[in-house]
Amino acid sequence: MILETIVTTRNRDGTVNIAPMGPYCDDPELATFELRPFCTSTTWQNLKRSRQGILHITDNVELFARAATGGVVEPTCLPGLMVNVERLADFCRCYEFQVTWLQEARDRATVHCRTLHAERQRDFIGFHRARHAVIEACILATRVDFLPPQEIRRQFAELERLVIKTGGPAERAAFQVLLDFLPQAVDNDSDTTERPPA
Ligand SMILES: Cc1cc2nc3c(=O)[nH]c(=O)nc-3n(C[C@H](O)[C@H](O)[C@H](O)COP(=O)(O)O)c2cc1C
To answer: pTM (2 decimals)?
Structure first.
C-alpha cells in the first residue's frame, strides 16, 4: 500500500525541506516503511546525507498543495523530539524516523526507514472526495515537466469539479494554490481545454 504523506528533512544549509512523498507501508503501525524518492529530489540527497527525517500523515491538503508547488510552509514547523529535523504543526500522526538501509538506482532510490518516535495529534477525518481530488492535482503539479499541458489541464478541470461539489473552504483554498501555480508551470499556448461549468 502506498500512503500519501509529507516528509521533512534537513537541507545541507540547515533549512528544512518539505516534500510530498508516497511511502510503501506494509505495517499499519508504520514501525517500518519504505520511501522511493526520485534520485533528483532534494529529499533523497538529504536522506542520503543525514539518514533521518519526519513523515507526516495529514488531512490538511493545503500543506500538500504548498509543498508540491514550492510554496511557503516553513513558518508552521516545530522541532522534532528524536531527530534533528523540524516537523509540521498540523498533522494527524507523525513519525520521526531513521534510515536503516538505502540504495540508489537509475530513477528512484529505495530507502528503508524505522520509526523512532510516533505521535498522534488528532483523528484523520475520513474519506473525502475533494481532498483526494486535491492530492491528485498535487501529483499532477509535480509532473508538469513531463506530462502534456493539455492533459494536465483536462484532469485539473475534472478534479476542480469534485472540489467545488464536495469540498469546503479549506479544499477550495488548497485547489486555488494549485490553480495559481498552473499557468506559470505549463505552456499556455497549448491550452485548448474548456473548463466545465461549476
Ligand atoms: C501526493 C504526492 C506523492 C508523491 N510521492 C513521491 C514519491 O514517493 N517519490 C518522489 O520522488 N516524489 C514524489 N512526489 C513528487 C515530489 O513531491 C516532488 O518531486 C517534489 O518536488 C520533491 O521535492 P524535493 O526535491 O524537495 O524532495 C509526490 C508528490 C505528491 C503530490
So the answer is: 0.93
Q: Mean pLDDT across the stretch 140-159?
A: 95
Going by CA atoms, what residue is nearest to atom 10 of ligand 1?
37
Helices 129-141 and 149-166 sit at what angle, rounded to 10 degrees? 160
103, pLDDT greater than 80: yes
Closest CA to 113 of 21, 15, 14, 18: 21
From the alpha carbon of 37, which atom of ligand 1 is closest?
Answer: 11
Q: Is 152 in the pocket of ligand 1 (CB under 6 A)?
A: no
Separation of 41 CA from ligand 1 center, angstroms? 8
Q: Is 126 left (phi over 0), alpha (psi -120 to 50) or beta?
A: left
SS3 191: coil
Helix (H) or strand (E) holding 109: none
Query: Any residues with CB less than 8 A from the CB of 106 and at least 6 apart, and which?
Result: 39
CB 55 within 8 A of CB 7: yes
C-alpha radius of gyration, the chain, whole number: 17
| pLDDT for 197 | 40
Stronger pLDDT, 113 or 195, i.e. the higher one? 113
Question: Which three cell numbers, joined as nine digits, stand for 64?
Answer: 500538500
Q: Count CB neighbours of 41 within 10 A.
A: 18
